[in-house]
Amino acid sequence: MFSVGRHKNSKINVSFKFSFSETITHLPEIKDGKCFFPFYYRNEVFYDCMKLKTKHKWCSLNETYQGYWKYCSEEDFAKCVFPFWYRHMIYRECTEDGDAFGKKWCSLTQHYNKDKIWKYCD
């Protein structure tokens, strides 16, 4: 789409809008595959199984999604990484520190302060 507008001071304002369609091949589920974490999908990084336009969480079987995937089972979900660094302390187990609701959480990387990747503990 292309549009042109004129402001009060007579300068011409030109704007462009482009739409790109990304083609991604989705192959049938590979049930005995192993999830790869972190994985890249549509220019985002995922550290755990994800739910995007599906009924169940799924993961990629490649570092960069190439159509190979599977639905996640309990053993596929990302595991807590211990020890991890949060603020000025090192944690060796799930913590409630910093959670507004007092729920225990953990980091999915050793450097929470840098990566900010986490999940609630079971």
From TrEMBL:
<keyword id="KW-0278">Fertilization</keyword>
<keyword id="KW-0677">Repeat</keyword>
<keyword id="KW-0964">Secreted</keyword>
<dbReference type="GO" id="GO:0009986">
    <property type="term" value="C:cell surface"/>
</dbReference>
<feature type="domain" description="Fibronectin type-II">
    <location>
        <begin position="30"/>
        <end position="74"/>
    </location>
</feature>
<dbReference type="GO" id="GO:0008201">
    <property type="term" value="F:heparin binding"/>
</dbReference>
<feature type="disulfide bond">
    <location>
        <begin position="80"/>
        <end position="106"/>
    </location>
</feature>
<feature type="domain" description="Fibronectin type-II">
    <location>
        <begin position="75"/>
        <end position="122"/>
    </location>
</feature>
<keyword id="KW-1015">Disulfide bond</keyword>
<dbReference type="GO" id="GO:0048240">
    <property type="term" value="P:sperm capacitation"/>
</dbReference>
<dbReference type="GO" id="GO:0005615">
    <property type="term" value="C:extracellular space"/>
</dbReference>
<feature type="disulfide bond">
    <location>
        <begin position="94"/>
        <end position="121"/>
    </location>
</feature>
<dbReference type="InterPro" id="IPR013806">
    <property type="entry name" value="Kringle-like"/>
</dbReference>
<dbReference type="Pfam" id="PF00040">
    <property type="entry name" value="fn2"/>
</dbReference>
<dbReference type="GO" id="GO:0033700">
    <property type="term" value="P:phospholipid efflux"/>
</dbReference>
<protein>
    <submittedName>
        <fullName>Binder of sperm protein homolog 1</fullName>
    </submittedName>
</protein>
<dbReference type="InterPro" id="IPR051666">
    <property type="entry name" value="SP_Capacitation_Regulator"/>
</dbReference>
<comment type="similarity">
    <text>Belongs to the seminal plasma protein family.</text>
</comment>
<dbReference type="GO" id="GO:0007338">
    <property type="term" value="P:single fertilization"/>
</dbReference>
<dbReference type="InterPro" id="IPR000562">
    <property type="entry name" value="FN_type2_dom"/>
</dbReference>
<dbReference type="GO" id="GO:1902492">
    <property type="term" value="P:positive regulation of sperm capacitation"/>
</dbReference>
<dbReference type="InterPro" id="IPR036943">
    <property type="entry name" value="FN_type2_sf"/>
</dbReference>
